[in-house]
Design brief:
Layout: H1 2-15, H2 25-39, H3 45-62, H4 68-88, H5 91-108, H6 112-128, H7 132-152
């Protein structure tokens, strides 16, 4: 009898998780985006570019590709990062901005050649500065582009 009591108590304890408040992934990502946006005005140079790219990345991987308003945000923050990075000669920032911009070319504009051009340039930059994170993201996106090419045939 004790055994059944303990099993019931354990089951009840573990089922309490089902009643806790659950925050969706999009809400968490939205909080992250809001935090980055609040920090942005106080940042300069490389830190500002990194923040702009991170905001674009957060939009990239937290929303559906069919959501055009999010694609507009990715394009906006990616373009701003690209302008700032180009102005200060920050190659890592340029490379990551091209990764972000390639996603908008691929998914919003359906412009596979432009997306591939951005990614190939990003790979060259990543290899020239020996940044494996940049190269890895760029090759991941190149895989997305290849998949889109295969789906369009």
């Amino acid at each position: 009898m004790k055994k059944y009591f303990y099993i019931s108590a354990l089951s009840f304890t573990f089922s309490l998780n089902a009643f806790t408040q659950n925050i969706s992934a999009n809400e968490i990502d939205s909080l992250s985006i809001d935090s980055l946006k609040k920090a942005l005005p106080s940042l300069k140079d490389n830190a500002k570019v990194d923040c702009l790219n991170q905001i674009a990345m957060e939009y990239n991987y937290s929303y559906s590709y069919e959501d055009v308003t999010k694609m507009d945000s990715i394009y906006y923050y990616g373009s701003e990062a690209n302008k700032e990075a180009t102005k200060i000669g920050y190659k890592k920032g340029i490379g990551f901005s091209l990764v972000n911009l390639s996603r908008t070319e691929l998914f919003a504009n359906k412009n596979i050649p432009a997306a591939e051009k951005n990614i190939r340039e990003s790979i060259l930059i990543g290899e020239s500065i020996n940044n494996p994170d940049l190269v890895g993201w760029a090759y991941y996106e190149l895989g997305e582009i290849d998949q889109a090419k295969n789906n369009s045939q």
